[in-house]
Amino acid sequence: MSSSSSSSSASKIIGVLLGLGLAGILFMSRKLKKVIKEDFGAFVERFNLLPPPPPAPPKAPHLLSALSFAVSDIFDIEGYVTGFGNPDWEKTHDAATRTSPVVSSLVEGGATCTGKTVIDELAYSISGVNKHYDTPTNPVAPALIPGGSSSGAAVAVSANLVDFALGVDTTGGVRLPAAFCGIFGFRSSQGALSNVGIIPVSPSLDALGWFAKDASILRRVGHVLLQLPYSDPRAPKNVIIADDCFEVLKSPMSRVSQVVIKSSEKLFGKQVLKHENLESYLGSKVPSLNQFNNSNRNGELKISTMRSLAHAMLFLQRNEFNSIHGDWIHTTKPVLDPATSAQLEVVESAVDKAHTCQSIRSETRSALNSLLKDDGILVIPTVADPPPKLGSKEILSEDYQTRNFSLLSVASISGCCQVSIPLGFYDNCPVSVSFIAKHGNDRFLLDTVQSMYASLQEQSDIASKNNSSKNTVSQEESAEIAKEKGNTAFKEKKMQKAIGFYTEAIKLNSDNATYYNNRAAAYLDVGSFLQAEADCSTAISLDKKNVKAYLRRGTAREMLGYYKEAIEDFRHALVLEPTNKRAALSADRLKKLFQ
């Protein structure tokens, strides 16, 4: 939000509050600070990079016309310091003298860049937690982590603050937050796009990625970034299900792999479906893993292939990060989160081991390219586990890290392109699946997602309904329990907890106006007026005679400066309940202010 618009909003609110007394003004000043920051904590910097004027007809408009996007705070923007998720980094580096070429290409393609988003500290983890800038709120699961490292970018897209966003995927930094926030996340083929103007984390693993909520936008962004000329899309001839990878999931296979299988059969026929044990396949095709295991066994008799891939990936990340940024860390001695410090201290400087890892990369890419060829898709889970709760110990547990890195390492080590695809929810958590295509086959992967997604949604809805029909009664009961927990938290003035419980109730039963109305009351209390207005509007659409919803929406609109609409809401509440003194007083007060 610009300083001029912030100042205008402030003067409007203070004008409304004249006569309420000093205590009221101080109270609303605290609320105002929250309103200015009301972006789910996604952004660290707001600005506008505007696209060139659209070409005159009959020329076609720019491919990304009217779209907005954000960039993770790892991309250079001329005139701004690239913060890299750490205040000490920002203090010790100058503003960028030019904008990253990939960002410029999107602006030239017709999109407006609206700001920079939060990343994990030094883009080093996948949790989405950043103690310096606060952890962005997961819009689809506020009590759960958003995932990282490109947490703010994923949150901005999931919350509809922008149409798409850029991130960097090293060990899952785009794919994992996409899965946790219920949106698309595309990791491009390693080296397919310029890394100029992007802070490196681990050059052997870094790949540019982007988020979107819409498959068409995901594809359009890819066509601009990859500078792809038009060509007819190709249908996959092989859809290979990595059966062993789905066996480790905590959600049922009917919600993930079976959705892909049924969609593929419907679109392309049963003949395209193949099944593979990825652990066995890579174990036989990547001999250098044995050499890596011998130097990494630490007393273990046997290490699985997928786990070994994860170990190799993390070794490369740590080794290369230290070689690039180690001097800065030792010289500056920045204030780091203990979790980040602990990971950086694990660095091993083994030249032979680094060479072995490069061999593993080459062999894994060759193995997957041979398996997939030009027209194959490998289907694996994006992540093994649902997003953990904020502040839980699970985030740093070895089991959680190993289970998820084992899946994420397949594309990171091979450099192949991968897309995480949202498939709705299971047990109140986002569900996703991933498609991987051979290195350099980004266009084919984008086209496949575009052609399959409607069918995937259809099959996902069927699977979800089949599951929910068995639990309809218990879901409604669970929703009521969550609402009561929210009411208790509200009475105890624990508003964020209340919002979380009401959100849980809405996920369990989205047709209940009371749940939206109650959440709106909590949002009003913390100054989240946009969210309060949206919730009240939903409540009204479900229950046209909901007096409280009109009153709360009127209050939210008043605070946002929409005075005419606020008066209409208060008057509508009076029509429904003529004796409501609050509605009468609010409508009269606003009317007098503008006479």
Keyword list:
595 residues, alpha/beta, Amidase signature (AS) enzymes, Serine Threonine Protein Phosphatase 5, Tetratricopeptide repeat, 2 domains, 11-stranded mixed β-sheet, 51% helix, globular, disordered N terminus, repeat, membrane
Write out the CATH superfamily name of the largest domain.
Answer: Amidase signature (AS) domain
Derived structural class: alpha/beta
Largest sheet: 11 strands, mixed
SS summary, helix count: 23
Residue-averaged pLDDT, rounded?
89
Give the tally of structural domains: 2
User: In the CATH classification, which architecture of the largest domain applies?
Assistant: Alpha-Beta Complex
> Per CATH, what is the topology of the largest domain?
Amidase signature (AS) enzymes
Head-to-tail CA distance between termini: 30 Å
Principal-axis shape = globular
- Report the count of strand segments: 11
CATH class of the largest domain: Alpha Beta
Low-confidence regions: 1-36
- Sheet-strand content, in percent, reads 5-15%
Helix content: 40-55%
Specify Rg, calculated over alpha carbons. Answer: 25 Å
Biggest sheet: strand arrangement: 1-3-2-4-6-5-10-11-9-7-8
Transmembrane segments: 12-29
Protein name: Amidase domain-containing protein
Domain Amidase: 63-446
InterPro entries: Amidase_dom, AS_sf, TPR-like_helical_dom_sf, TPR_2, TPR_rpt
